[in-house]
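BUG: 3D viewer hangs when loading the predicted structure for this chain

Environment: internal workstation, default settings.
Expected: structure renders.
Actual: progress bar stalls at 90%.

Input used:
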Amino acid sequence: MSFMLLGILNSQAAGGAGGPAYDLIETVEATSPVSSISFSGIPSDYKHLEIRYLAVGSSDGGIPNMYFNGDTASNYSSHVMTTIGTTRTAGSNTNDNKINIGGYNVGNENSLTLPFLGVVSITDANSTTKYKTSRAFYGITESTASNSEVGFWSGNWRSTSAITSINFGLGGINWAVGARISLYGVK
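Structure tokens produced before the viewer hung:
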């Protein structure tokens, strides 16, 4: 029995039965304020992509967002469910030029730089027969509970092109020093 358990644990540690492996493709960290962060030349051998970000804005406001392959036309839609403090809201954007992936409270509150965390999954990123869909979970804890936020965005890009580049913005404000985005691939 102990040899069987040891074999199971070893296979999971090696990725044998633990689910898909996430390969780190690239990480970008802002060393000076920048209006956008981009990944280009994304390998085509990954079925799905995942983005993990730590957003820090240069000033209060701004919503983390992304667009693909340089396409800034009205080819995106998204839906949001969020809770700020005790207030719950839902909404949608149609015919937009980006997909939102976070909430509005990115930035500085009372001169304190507050990180905003999120994880974005993009399904079938290299398919050439499907529109691309994404889902983003995010959150921020501010100095008062009434301003803390958690939420979920789902989005789509109405294109059958494989994703070769992703551009990240903050809705008109800069990414501040220390903002970090990592791109992972799943085969």
